[in-house]
Design a protein that fits this description.
Strand 2 and strand 3 form a beta hairpin. By secondary structure, the protein is α+β, with helices and mostly antiparallel strands. It contains 11 helices and 13 strands. InterPro entries: Lysozyme-like_dom_sf, NLP_P60_dom, Papain-like_cys_pep_sf, PG_Endopeptidase_C40.
Length: 332
């Protein structure tokens, strides 16, 4: 239904036209005072599921609010909105009025002290309530964007969402919902500059891409630990950014599976090089036949072709499809 009236802070808002194509959004708004035109935020294009499931006003709002946290994809906010209150459509206590058993309220389920703290530190949009209200969708979604940013997003989306609600199952549910809301190219972009979004694969790749240029160090667990990365140290840390623990060496990571065919590769999967007796290298599949990896001595973390002259490509695994990952502590 394109016409939707929201009574929030005494302002009636009627949305008569919503056209979404990639990140181009047109909205006609009536009866608002002192408001700015809502522009879509930079990020992924909405999937068909997003367009059909998210109320048009909320979809535009998620896109707008994401710009308050540069680099945060709107789909993460939408994932939280879906998990918390079905985008404000839930009839449970504390959504449109009152509080739930924990004291949370509004479409993004803020505790009053947290909401007040966030809104006191950050500029709120003119088309929200005055003073800001947890029940006002504009205030609530912008406050969520600011709160995630204050908590480490977009660099560490997993931890930011965990701060929002201290449960790993919650983080996984939000990230999976965010992935469903994003229109995704199955082969992936093959370009670190085009890695966006809050789904788990994108978070893993964003971590690895943020390490581009860092030196290769044998047994390296990061520049803050021992000056750089080795191949399996990078992949282990990238997956740790979403709460999954991989073994430490390339061979152990391959054996932990699940093993997939090269034709089934998806962004975020692990690719391995070597032989049955000597798996000596691992990288992260970036899509479009590209990987991001810590290659070897004298060559920093970089993006390169999956296949190259003389390569000894061995196989691939998809840890994101595994029910759990095995831990390990020896370095390669």
């Amino acid at each position: 239904m394109l016409a939707r009236v929201l009574a929030a802070g005494g302002v009636s808002v009627v949305f008569t036209s919503v056209v979404i194509a990639a990140v181009v959004t047109t909205v006609t708004v009536a009866n608002q005072t002192n408001s700015t035109a809502p522009n879509a935020g930079v990020g992924s294009a909405p999937s068909q599921e997003a367009v059909s499931d998210i109320p048009p006003y909320m979809l535009v709002l998620y896109q707008r609010a994401a710009t308050a946290c540069p680099g945060l994809d709107w789909s993460v906010l939408a994932g939280i909105g879906k998990v918390e209150t079905d985008h404000g459509r839930s009839t449970l206590p504390g959504v449109s009025s009152g509080e739930n058993f924990a004291g949370a309220a509004g479409p993004m389920q803020f505790l009053a002290p947290t909401f007040d703290s966030v809104t006191s530190r950050h500029p709120m949009p003119a088309d929200g309530a005055s003073p800001p209200s947890r029940y006002n969708p504009v205030d609530a979604v912008y406050a969520a964007a600011y709160y995630l940013c204050d908590s480490g997003a977009p660099e560490d989306v997993y931890s930011a969402i965990f701060t929002y609600n201290h449960a790993d199952w919650y983080v996984h549910e939000v990230l999976d919902q965010a992935a469903a809301y994003r229109s995704q190219t199955p082969t992936g972009p093959g370009d670190c500059g085009r890695v966006h979004g809050g789904d788990r694969a994108s978070v893993v790749l964003a971590f690895a891409c943020a390490q581009l240029g860092q030196p290769y160090v044998w047994g390296g667990d990061g520049p803050q630990v021992n000056g750089g990365w080795d191949c399996s140290g990078l992949t282990k840390a990238a997956y740790a950014s979403i709460g999954l623990t991989l073994p430490r060496t390339a061979a152990e990571q391959y054996r932990s599976g699940p093993i997939i065919s090269e034709s089934a590769l998806r962004p975020g999967d692990l690719v391995f090089y070597g032989t049955t007796d000597n798996i000596h290298h691992v990288g992260l599949y970036l899509g479009n036949s590209k990987i991001v990896n810590a290659p070897t001595f004298g060559i920093p973390v970089r993006v390169q072709d999956l296949h190259y002259p003389g390569d000894d490509y061995f196989g691939a695994t998809s840890p994101l499809t595994a029910s759990s990952a095995v831990s390990g502590d020896s370095a390669q």
